[in-house]
């Protein structure tokens, strides 16, 4: 008979959102939106993205910002891992990754490396593992906002090294209008709607995830019509999964090692690990639609989607293992009693 711990870990590995996301990609592959349907989905997607970031802004309290912002050493380390370490690793591995993955998927890996960290899952896993939650809220939210400016700059620099180019200023302006303005509007509305949102977090989580699924379907539909699965082979897809596993392993090792070497306590280490090793699908999908042509969005997003699933699976198990550090002393004290 399987232990409850194993069953719990399996539940986290194969959660509903992971399975639904895979189903959405399959739906976009088999029944992509095209013609008038694609135009309708594009407009609905714009509204969904605005709603998504409006909700992010409304969820963030001033108290959490003030409580977390004081821990500047932790934030500096998280941002260094997110916006310096990841891009350097992706750029340095070009001689290995580009021949293995092909040019389009390698661009997707570079894009993945330039993205900010997650918000909801980083905070959720920090909470499960009993880490420094106020610092996680501040660090994850700040990473998302900083990424609005930093990510297009990094993508422009990294793609410049591959011969591609984007209009960085135009990208920043478009992304600011699509993401930053709804975020600020939501945060300014928090005094009036904050309590209602706090009471309805479970229901709003469904709206949040549905917005991401809609954006993924729209983006992949355009890429499938543009010939995504004709340019990406099964071998390249298998190699991509391995590459994402290696990237995540390097990020987890680096964040844990640096947190220990720099003298952070266990609660801060947990926050650094979960905020500094993760990449945001919620931010990455709408940004990709601004930064890349329609046919290139799918290959650009594929590494992020693979990495996103792997990071959720691995970090869910890690969060439970961190949490058990509280159970072991209690069990020892009961035995001694």
Describe this structure in words.
This protein is an all-alpha fold and 337 residues long. The protein has one domain (4-324): Na+/H+ antiporter like fold (Up-down Bundle). The chain is built from 17 helices and no strands. Helix 3 runs antiparallel to helix 12, helix 4 (62-69) crosses helix 9 and helix 5 (72-92) packs antiparallel against helix 14 (234-261). The chain crosses the membrane at residues 12-30, 36-54, 74-93, 105-125, 137-159, 171-189, 210-231, 237-256.
- Total separate domains: 1
In sequence order, what are the helices and strands, one letter per element?
HHHHHHHHHHHHHHHHH
The CATH architecture name reads: Up-down Bundle
Structural class: mainly alpha
The percent range for strand residues is under 5%
The level 1 CATH classification is Mainly Alpha
Biggest pleated-sheet summary: none
Number of strands: 0
Measured on Cα atoms, how large is the radius of gyration?
Answer: 20 Å
What CATH calls the topology is Na+/H+ antiporter like fold
Q: Which ranges are low-confidence, i.e. pLDDT below 50, for 5 or more consecutive residues? A: 330-336
Helix content: over 70%
Label the overall shape.
globular
Mean pLDDT figure: 82
Number of helical regions: 17
Termini separation (Å)? Answer: 30 Å
């Amino acid at each position: 008979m399987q232990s409850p711990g194993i069953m719990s870990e399996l539940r986290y590995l194969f959660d509903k959102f992971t399975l639904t996301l895979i189903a959405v990609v399959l739906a976009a592959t088999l029944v992509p939106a095209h013609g008038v349907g694609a135009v309708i989905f594009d407009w609905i997607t714009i509204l969904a993205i605005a709603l998504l970031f409006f909700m992010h802004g409304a969820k963030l309290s001033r108290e959490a910002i003030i409580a977390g912002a004081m821990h500047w050493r932790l934030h500096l380390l998280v941002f260094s891992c997110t916006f310096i370490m990841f891009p350097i690793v992706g750029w340095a591995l070009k001689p290995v990754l580009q021949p293995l993955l092909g040019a389009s998927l390698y661009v997707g890996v570079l894009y993945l490396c330039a993205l900010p960290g997650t918000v909801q899952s980083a905070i959720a896993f920090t909470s499960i593992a009993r880490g420094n939650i106020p610092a996680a809220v501040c660090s994850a939210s700040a990473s998302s906002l900083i990424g609005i400016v930093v990510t297009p700059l990094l993508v422009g620099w990294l793609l410049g090294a591959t011969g591609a180019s984007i209009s960085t200023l135009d990208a920043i302006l478009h992304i600011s209008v699509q993401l930053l303005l709804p975020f600020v509007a939501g945060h300014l509305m928090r005094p009036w709607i904050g309590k209602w949102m706090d009471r309805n977090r479970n229901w709003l989580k469904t709206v949040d995830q549905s917005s991401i699924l809609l954006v993924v379907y729209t983006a992949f539909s355009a890429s499938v019509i543009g010939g995504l699965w004709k340019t990406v082979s099964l071998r390249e897809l298998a190699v991509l999964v391995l590459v994402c596993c290696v990237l995540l392993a390097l990020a987890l090792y680096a964040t844990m090692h640096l947190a220990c070497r720099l003298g952070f306590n266990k609660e801060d280490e947990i926050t650094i690990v979960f905020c500094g090793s993760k990449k945001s699908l919620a931010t990455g999908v709408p940004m990709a639609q601004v930064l890349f042509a329609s046919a290139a969005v799918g290959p650009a997003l594929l590494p992020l989607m693979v990495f996103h699933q792997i990071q959720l699976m691995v970090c869910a198990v890690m969060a439970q293992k961190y949490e058990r550090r509280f159970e072991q002393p209690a069990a020892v004290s009961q035995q001694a009693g």
